[in-house]
Specification:
The chain is an alpha+beta fold. It is built from 13 helices and eight strands. Strands 1-2-3-4 form a four-stranded antiparallel β-sheet. A four-stranded antiparallel β-sheet has the order 5-6-7-8, covered by helices on one side. It comes from Streptomyces shaanxiensis.
């Protein structure tokens, strides 16, 4: 929720302290208020960048359809050509690299994508997507593509900007720091809001700092669930917390499974090494492979991945991330065209399914346009909350300067029976979410040092000051 120096506007000594059913929070309220203040002041800039770039990314799906309409859409024809013929047309226009995957046209007016890897001038982690008219085999263009959702240049640029500010792996630390703190600040804001007296939460009829606080708290409480969700799902594919989550899932037997790509025998001459110039055609060929996958119930959209080597099979997998999710996959022997392995999304472990749905909801693909609009509204609310938070801090200084920080020593008011378990929980959470733990430790060290400096200055005599 409150993601900036938010409820910082309330002094720890103010009379709007917790009342009846909230008395249990009374010892913790000053500590939460101080943490909420400092986390807001120091982390809000990272959250502001994440919210702004996330807003752009949520709108990138629709912008992509407009920007690349010529490549992505085709006039509807009478009958689609065999997929092998479409791939051959793509290879004739772009003989460079090798075919790494093929996505047959998923809709009547959609083009087929033939993805090429190892193309000079294309990022090693990206592919060159060649767009082919499935009715005429006309090549309508080629664009660099990234990721499992098939992001084209515009969306790829925004995606990388949101993820790492185009700074590479080190840049990912900013987004992980933001995701690590978002749920903490949101939870603190919710507690602070509901431990205020009801009469002090209203917006109507108020002005100045009181009105700003009312608006900030009301919007923050309504958006808090969304912030918890964004934080949790953002951490699932972060660098450090994400690795810990993956390790935990694996230990619980909840890792995302994958179809076995082994051909199940010695099929020399049918693997990628035996392909005809990296065309994607091996053994029985693409047409029979696609037909075998269709027979197993794999409807559009699907992706065909050619064998990686002589001992590998074709892998055909559904790639629909929108609801209902289609993620079934099959492995097909390139020599015989027989299905050697089948993996159904229904058989995924529970946490694997939740991770899939959580990521797709976070990226705006699970429910399409409605999902993307909801994400844009969440991003806007976060931006507004941060602005209101800093405004409250300014108003706390009587509108001419930022107000003084929340007083130190709040932890001393917390009874040991609450403080000790709280510290233990924080330590465990800090271990699994390391950027939260490290930054919180840094906050504490800086706070202690500044407090000690202030204490020593206070002990200096007038003569010493001179």
């Amino acid at each position: 929720m409150s993601t900036a120096p938010t409820t910082v506007t309330e002094d720890a000594s103010q009379p709007d302290a917790p009342t009846s059913p909230s008395r249990r929070w009374a010892p913790l309220r000053p500590l939460i208020l101080r943490l909420h203040f400092y986390a807001g002041v120091l982390v809000a800039p990272f959250l502001l960048v994440a919210a702004a770039t996330g807003f752009l990314y949520a709108g990138a799906f629709q912008a992509e359809k407009f920007a690349y309409a010529h490549e992505m859409t085709v006039p509807v024809g009478d009958e689609e050509l065999p997929i092998s013929q479409q791939v051959a047309a793509a290879r004739k226009a772009h003989p460079e690299g090798t075919v790494s995957a093929i996505r047959p046209s998923p809709q009547d007016d959609a083009s087929t994508r033939v993805m090429l890897s190892g193309v000079k001038g294309v990022d090693a982690e990206h592919t060159l997507a060649v767009f082919v008219d499935p009715y005429t085999a006309e090549v309508r263009g080629a664009l660099e593509q990234y990721g499992s959702t098939g992001a084209l240049p515009l969306r790829t640029w925004i995606d990388e900007f949101h993820r790492d500010l185009h700074l590479g792996e080190n840049g990912r630390l900013y987004s992980e720091l933001a995701a690590s703190w978002l749920w903490v600040i949101a939870a603190g804001g919710v507690v602070l809001w509901f431990t205020r007296r009801r009469a002090l939460r209203k917006v109507r009829g108020t002005s100045g700092r009181r009105r700003t606080l009312g608006l900030h708290g009301t919007v923050g409480v309504w958006a808090a669930i969304g912030f918890f969700f964004l934080s949790a799902t953002g951490l699932t594919w972060s660098a450090y917390a994400g690795a810990n989550i993956d390790e935990l899932r694996t230990s619980l037997g909840q890792a995302t499974p994958s179809v076995s790509a082994s051909a199940g025998g010695d099929h020399g001459g049918h693997g990628a090494a035996a392909g005809t110039g990296g065309s994607g055609e091996h053994g029985v060929g693409l047409d029979k492979v696609l037909a075998a996958a269709r027979a197993e119930g794999l409807g559009d959209p699907v992706e065909i991945v050619p064998p990686a080597d002589d001992s590998s099979a074709y892998v055909v997998k559904q790639v629909q991330r929108s609801w209902p999710t289609k993620q079934d996959s099959v492995a097909i022997d390139p020599a015989s065209g027989e299905v050697t392995d089948v993996l159904r999304f229904d058989d995924f472990p529970v946490l694997a399914k939740l991770t899939r749905w959580g990521i797709d909801l976070h990226t705006g693909v699970l429910f399409g346009l409605a999902n993307q609009i909801a994400l844009m509204l969440l991003a806007l609310s976060l931006i507004v909350l941060i602005i209101w938070g800093y405004r409250m801090w300014w108003q706390r200084g009587r509108g001419s300067a930022f107000g003084r920080p929340i007083p130190r020593g709040a932890w001393q008011q917390v009874p040991p029976q609450i403080l000790v378990p709280l510290v233990a929980v924080v330590a465990v959470v800090g271990y699994f979410v390391p950027l939260l733990g490290i930054s919180l430790a840094a906050f504490i060290v800086v706070d202690v040092v500044l407090g000690e400096v202030t204490r020593r200055r206070g002990k200096r005599t007038p003569a010493e000051v001179k």
